[in-house]
Design a protein that fits this description.
alpha/beta, 4-stranded antiparallel β-sheet, single chain, globular, Aspartate Aminotransferase, domain 2, 17% strand, 367 residues, 2 domains, Aspartate Aminotransferase, domain 1
Length: 367
Amino acid sequence: MKPQHGGNLYQISKKHNIALGEIVDFSANINPVSHPYRLKQVLKEDFNKIRMYPDPDCRELIDAISDRYNIKKTCLVPANGATELIYLICYLLRPKKAAVIIPTFSEYEKALSNIDCNIKFVKLEEKEGFGLNLQDIRSIIKSVEVLFICNPNNPTGQKISRNTLYNILHLAKRHNVFVVIDEAFIDLIEDESLAARAQRQQNLFVIRSLTKFLGIPGLRLGFGVVSARLSAKIKNFQPTWSVNTFAQIAGSYLLADSAYIEKSKRILIKERNFLSSELKSIKSIKVFDSYTNFILFKLMGQAGLTPTFVGGGPARPAGLERLLIRDKIVVRNCGNFKGLNSSFIRIAVKKRAENELLIKALKKILG
């Protein structure tokens, strides 16, 4: 089955007969800060490159990534979004047994299933705030070949401390286990990234997304950091021209724009704190602290939801997302995340006016 993700506005637009431009999308965790005007000019000036093949070696993009994150160029693997890298590392390693910490991004499981890998799941517990218990890793690491970690985690928003990660890497090295760390949402705690370490540690692959923080989901862009030896091997599995011309141009330009990046961080942290505070004022939901540009909360007993009739049967509470769509607001129901159910909702952090619109709608529905 194809995994379901947030941001499928085309389906929502058709189903509910709402114009795409009228939808307020809280389901996809994309930077809401407007791009610099100059970016549009740069893309227009290079429009004729649409008639040329992209640079298969992504040289300018690799230069920009290397300069921004201080990573050796030989250790970088640019890709068509972080998701491509998940599949590439699975095809390269082809483990027979792997571990995935849940709830988390569904593409790890899909990529591993595609190579007939037996998957063991390590469940994060709600009662522990979805924090990772190192003992759970100790109990499973001897029986797998690859361990997938999302840090900070999607959809919980929690991070794993650097000390815990170092302990995991130490255990993995001792038991000859390869560790994949997906840092798609590390941007707001950039100083905790393990990308630099991945250059020199042979059993570590760090995946980064540029799609989300640079606000270019329509272009798709990400990169991996791994030892130079493995970087060359991964690229052998990658299709030629994987990263399109305009993704390379936009990524290179935005990575060099420190003002845009720092402004984005300031606004996202400020708005995340605002949203979290407002959500916590609603008594019928439980809010989980976040280190990312999204927030997870749980509906407690479906309190305040309007009854509805389904198929002529008895009245039952309508899903929150179905009530919000009346105000053209889309959120991410987390019912299809392993380890969660439909009472969990994830929302992206957006600009103040949109955040206020969401809070107003939630308070109207939930009281």
